[in-house]
Request: fold
Amino acid sequence: MKQKFFIDTNKGMTAFIVILLMIIFNQWQNPTAWIYLALHGSYGFLWILKSNIFPDGSWEEKTGLAYGLAIWGGLSLYWVAPYLITSQNIHAPGWYLGLCVAMFAFGLFTHFAADMQKHTCLSLNPGHLISNGMFAHLRNPNYFGELLIYLGFVLLAMHWLPVVILLAWIGFVWFPRMLKKDRVLAQFPDFQEYKKRSKLFIPFLF
Reply:
């Protein structure tokens, strides 16, 4: 099976997991739980649409059942945030909810726009370095978008544990993939100039 099968099914399950937690802990009157459901739940369904309309080629690779289940289990750690929100009856203040929603919105645009540009460019003009548009000043705008998206989720829990889980994903999965991409792009003669004028992950910083 392809890696994306495990990723897509996990992300598609998120909304149902959050609803189940809201049922178990009777959180129907908790705005923070509803906001979490709206953000992470809708993101899961939008991811599946993206996966089928303009898929990321790296997730098209086939994998064994054990590694696929490891991916599924690792992604399930993100459900710690809704568990904390519902089990501890977390009520984030209004301004904080607004901040998380805005962060999610900017992240969703950045992530999806970058993936759409990459998919289109590689389909129409394969074998060329993408260094314009969303990639003009940032080599991995899709990962930066995901960072904003997931910060919008995990910060709603107002707890350190979901943040640590996100940092673990960044350190053990995202960064190795970004560095591997840089090594692949190094084959292009204009990559070094592009690398000098762009950041790896965070705009203006890193």
Remarks:
- The chain has a mean pLDDT of 95.
- The chain has eight helices and no strands.
- Helices lie at 3-24, 31-53, 65-76, 80-87, 94-124, 141-154, 160-185, 191-196.
